[in-house]
Amino acid sequence: MENKNQTKNSVSNFTNLLEFFHIVENLKKTKRTGWIQFNIKNPESISDHMYRMSILALLLNDDDLDKNKCVKMAVVHDLAEGIVGDISPAEGITKEEKHRREMEAMQHICKELLGNSLQSQEIFSLWQEYENGETMEAKFVKDLDKFEMILQAFEYEKSDKKDLSEFFETTRGKFNHPLVKSWVEELYLRRETLTN
User: Which residues form the HD/PDEase domain (predicted)?
Assistant: First the structure.
């Protein structure tokens, strides 16, 4: 009887895992809204953005920050978008409503699909920490989020011959971590030489 229940639970658990895997697949397929709105020919996906952020986090050289936590946080920070999509400010949805939708999605993922396991609690905790933006790690990853976006904008300006100044203007002066600030300053200089 016990083996039969274990098999049933295993199938049920795998069904939930499979749904979770499909949500992650949505991150691979869903193009970032801002780039679509600017008619970029081959816009990056949400997971493209998350992956490069994770790689950038690996370059952290600050003993005051937990690098592993930053990498994990970058990996999960947009996980809810696998359900709710990439909601951009241009869509007119309030920050509160966006947060409500994403919180609901994360609770579905972590509590229902992943069964409130230790792993799902870690995912939810990392996401919540990022959303709250109060710890040094969350602030660093938020800097990476903005930096990765302007880095991508710079690349699209070159490849698609578009003026994406809006992305640079909305983030100007909003970077805090010295490493990311140094990257931003260098990127501004490169962009200046490209546009002059």
Answer: 42-159
